Amino acid sequence: MRQALKQYKFDWMLWRTYEAGSKLLAGTAQEYDIALRYIPYFKDPVKEVYKAKAGQLFLEMTATYLDNIVNAHQRGKKTCMTTFCFSPAILYALDIVPVTLELLTVMMTFLYKRGTFEFLDYCNEVGFTETSCSSQRGSMGALLADLGTPIDMVVTDSPGVCDTNANAFSFFAAYKDVPFFQLNMPPWLVEERVTEYHVQDYKALVAFLEEQSGKKLDEDRLRQILKELQKQDELINELEQYLCYKPLPLPVTTCLFIYAGRFMFAGMPIYTRLLELLVAEGRENVALHKQGINTSHEKSRGFFCYIDHYTHSLRLWQMLEELNIGYAGNILSHFWAQSNPPVVKYNCPESAYSINTNTLEDMLTSIAAINSRMPMIKSIRGPYDSPYMWLQDTLALASMYQADFIVYNGTPGCRNTWGMVKLLAQDTEKAGFPTHIMYADAFDDRVQSWDATRDRFEEFLRVRRLI
Amino acid sequence: MFDEFRQIAQSISNEYIQNEKKKGSLCIGYTCSYFPEEILHSLGILPYRIKGINVSSLSVADAAFGPFICSHPKCLLQHFADGDYSFLDGIIVTPGCDSMRRIDECIRKTAVNLDLPVVPPFFFHYAVPHKITEYSIKWLVEELQRFIDEVTKHFSLSFSYDALKQSIRFYNQLRAKIEKLNSLRMEQPPAVSGADAVAAFVAGLSMPREIFLQKLDAFLSHLETQPYNNRVRLMLIGSANDDVELLSLIENDNAVVVADTLCYGPRLEIDYVDEVDEPLHALAVRYLNHSHCPRMYGGYKERKAKVVEAIAKARVDGVILQNIRFCDLHGAENGLLERDLEQMGVPCLRLEREYGPLADYERMRMRIDAFIERMEVRRYVCDRP
Fold this sequence. Notes:
- The complex is a heterodimer of chains A (467) and B (385).
- Chain A has 467 residues and is an alpha/beta fold.
- In chain A, 51% of the residues lie in helices and 7% in strands.
- In chain A, strands 2-1-3-4 form a 4-stranded parallel beta sheet, sandwiched between helices. Chain A has a 4-stranded parallel beta sheet with strand order 6-5-7-8, with helices on both faces.
- The longest helix of chain A is centred in the middle third of the chain and has 25 residues, at 219-243.
- Chain A is globular and about 55 Å long.
- The model of chain A has no long low-confidence stretch (mean pLDDT 95).
- With 385 residues, chain B is α/β, with parallel strands linked by helices.
- Chain B has a domain at 14-161: Rossmann fold (3-Layer(aba) Sandwich).
- Chain B is built from 16 helices and 8 strands.
- In chain B, α12 links the parallel β5 (232-238) and β6.
- In chain B, α5 runs parallel beside α7, α8 packs across α13 and α10 runs antiparallel to α12.
- At the A-B interface, α9, β4, α10, α18 and α19 of A face α6, α7, α8 and α15 of B.
């Protein structure tokens, strides 16, 4: 790793940059334009994010998340390294600061042209495999090199769903000798003994967190957070309804805001405010019959059945807009509440969660159900063609959003999806959705350059006459 | 004796299986060491640990699996597609790791897409937790009961706890012999080479266990001294291996593998099943605790302690940490072991390889030879007055 990278803590760098980015609109338009000249790499993500009315709050929220991490110990709080598919609500209930590896990786790949290359490589230098998922490696490398806030505990919920994810967290815990807890996911979702297993496992997690933080779970605080989550679910439901409209009345970055916000601040008021702004913009556009993307008219609509592409400058979203493609979200933007539109439309409440805040037992049962329906955790756990799994969800969502095509994008480290994506694509094609498999790495442009990724994507669109 | 073991280990089918099939016996294959053979044995079914050796093409496997998948499950799938496992009446798929659990969809879809009769009539997805707790053991007990219910219903068999208890006793006897064989490798000088020991372990998983026990017994009572003195003593750690050739490649003329932690082998500890406990609970406890696989997240310290103990017991000169490409579980754990063992003064070699036909044979041989030379120099330096 270059010496220069070791000069500053990487999370501190991110925090200062996002905070500055969130204040760019505080001045005049002229000052904003001039400021952009001084941030040649950061200006594109900033411009893309600011296209949505919630953009400024999104950057403020990101800065707050980083502030929490950087200053956690100074404020007497413990830090917990965790993963995007683990709901941080329980950590907030116990006043523990989540340090979500994938979020930090993306925050850095959006910002820097070089992405997290050197941190990715640093993981390999200390013994971690280069074939592991880059979403964790990007920021884990920095934390392995002690270039971030020290981690007090590690929690993951991907065992049974994603080996490379779980393995990254268990590697870090062993390497740094930090307490580790794993939630296990059986390969099925809807079965009494599965529910029972989820709840027992979750209770063991709470005991672990209480022990590590030295704090007892505050029932009232948990209730407050779950009630906030209910509010957030309702707002997401409204946004999902707008995602079904043609043309899309929402800005192209909406789904990114929905899931990134939830991964950062599930159950926290700041995320509710973000959703309220998104909903307000959606309502306004619907009333005015205005589309969300800033180009001419929506030529085609895509559903990403896995994740987005996160390398520098939000280029995926820029490209979709340039090509006049409506973007109907991906697997990450769905949280499967019983009131969620796809759950209602396809009448499968048994596969979704509901929130009950009556007693502590009810709340723990609810939060265990929420967690076991997190993106990826819900639908990648079992064979892809089993009930409520990847194929069923993909086809349901793509149909509901009136998608014209489906795209798979992931990372070469994603063993669990690469083991079945070719088969999934055969089935989605049979169901009438042209399906494109991207061979890129969503977090590392060195695997396949963005130019090559875009060329192949455009070729797919042209060959299948989608644009 | 070992020639026969080698022959059986290095082929998919063998005369014993064919004889059993002629007699009308059922044979069920499984993919992971976390499945208790005792249950199949008690039902009179021949258990078969599915192997991937001797594949010459991955045409079907590459089409079904993506490019970033370990070559071991790909080879298993190819064998199914080629009809090599047509003698199996059933298959048990376990989420041992992400690559291996996707065998489930890949086999079923290959059958549909290519219109091939590759899926055995009985198909079972066996869900094993990744942790050892009271509730995960309870889960596994239920899972074993679910298996018994389904297999007995499918083949119209009757299950009895008495028969299961007898099978548990029988397998414990078998384990005692395997433990004996394993300890002979560790002796100074070793009485058995690593390749021969692995051949026996792998062969034992693909023949009637009673015959295996007889043959192992006969071998152990007529053991001749083998010329493995003064060889560099190695330990082999990492990804699953059913290929005796890998051991032969490592051992060559200068080294002997005196211990290993490989799947398909006894791993480091034999772990007997409690014969007093309720049988399904006893099996669940034994198989979930037999956790030398990094799929059991958070268990690195325990696994390392066992490796360190074996290094001392077997007087290991150096450790080869190998992983099949895309096997992140073993690859990452090998990184941790390399750091910790080297710190303790145990020389290590990390080796990434492809499973199957030893495509990178010469590259591996060169690195292994260099490592063995390092051990020889070290011995020379240490032995100097």
